[in-house]
Amino acid sequence: FKFSPCCNEMISIIARVRRCLSVKNVHKDLLRDHRFPGEVASLTRQCQWWFTQVPETYAMTEYAMGICRVKCYMPKRVLGWEAYTVMSVMDGSPCGNETACYNGVCKKKIIVKRQ
């Protein structure tokens, strides 16, 4: 697998705002989770991760922006008026029955088997 452009963008954003990522604190007892990020993070949670300084943001799911994209609500205090920002969803986010988004495309759901 490779990271999607969306994942690369989110990694660079988080790396800039999260100073803890530059601290070396290796642990050997890591939890092994074989799921994609979008399988465990709701669309609202994804909006909250992207906009950490806007705790009142949420996914406007009733206003779909196309497959593998989501509208994140922006309150009046951010821009001076109520608005939304369109974001790509994380890999593994559902986009239909037995389908999920990978690299920005809705495909048959991938099941990663534990080794």
Automatic annotation (TrEMBL):
Residues 37-106 form the ADAMTS cysteine-rich domain. Gene3D superfamilies: 3.40.1620.60. Pfam families: ADAMTS_CR_2 (PF17771). One of its GO terms (biological process) is proteolysis. Signal peptide: none annotated. Keywords: Disulfide bond, Glycoprotein, Hydrolase, Metal-binding, Metalloprotease, Protease, Zinc. One of its GO terms (molecular function) is metal ion binding. This is Metalloprotease.
